[in-house]
């Protein structure tokens, strides 16, 4: 079977790039079309990456910002030729679904990390940028993203969501049904280690940006008088440090995978105070046998089992959520959770399971298309 793979941009390697990497492992001969590529990243990604002039423009500006190039992505993808491919798999965030229009009669499988959440959610856009010019530009880009999605959505053969929450958004925004295949997590690397014992701190890991609600974790830790370790960086880092002043809160910045694994293993619990599309870091923590305290919405409902692998906090107003997280912190007993059961649960999110599930989706899509 000949497949082609499409992804939106390769400027870093995060959750969606791990999805594409596993797709490439399952179909190693499939070309991977990506409009915007940082060659420094692609060197260690996949030998099958195909790109074009947008990447050249990105390189010419010293890889400083890909944002001005995003409006050009849909038009570039619509002109791609997928030749004799039996099917095209699209990894979609906002604009890559435009490739569906180029596929014509070729079956398309779109793996949706989320319909462009920032485009559909005005409140989220307001948290992304503070300046009026920035907001106007993002509003215009949002309009393009929504039009791109709505034009392509009726033409997609098979839609795959990375969580039940994303499947609900697809239904709401695109008026299409989808099946859920959870993204891959490196559970072979993130493992328990008896030599690293539990310590008296909670862990928040990931980008420090508004929608992930690091402010809730910081305020709750200060209110409960507990120790919080924050691993990661982002545009809200300065605001978070200011908010944390006076509390027992340690910022360790960006850390290596090995350092992050050690932090997971030693933490009382991993925190997820914001709504995620799926959420890779909680699964990484659970793979290390560490329980998770999460806001009980979004992707957390797919990955965390309340009372078995962690505990949920109900969504509410900011002050109430801070109080609820603070109460969890003050009363949380990590010894009441079985690390073996937590680890066993996390293993279902392995790369092998992801590849197997996606292979079944492709096989079913082609079989249905032939029978039709």
Automatic annotation (TrEMBL):
Query: In the UniProt record, does the keyword Nuclease occur?
Result: no
In this chain the Glycosyl transferase family domain maps to 197-324
* Protein name per Swiss-Prot or TrEMBL: Glycosyltransferase family 4 protein
Q: What Pfam families does this protein's entry cite?
A: Glyco_transf_4 (PF13439), Glycos_transf_1 (PF00534)
* UniProtKB keywords: Glycosyltransferase, Transferase
- Which Gene3D superfamilies does the UniProt entry name for this protein? Glycogen Phosphorylase B
Q: Which PANTHER family match?
A: SULFOQUINOVOSYL TRANSFERASE SQD2
Q: Which GO terms describe its molecular function?
A: glycosyltransferase activity
GO biological process, alphabetically ordered? carbohydrate derivative biosynthetic process; lipid biosynthetic process; liposaccharide metabolic process
Ranges for domain Glycosyltransferase subfamily 4-like N-terminal come to 15-188
Q: What is the lineage of its organism?
A: Bacteria, Bacillati, Actinomycetota, Actinomycetes, Mycobacteriales
- Write down the superkingdom of origin: Bacteria
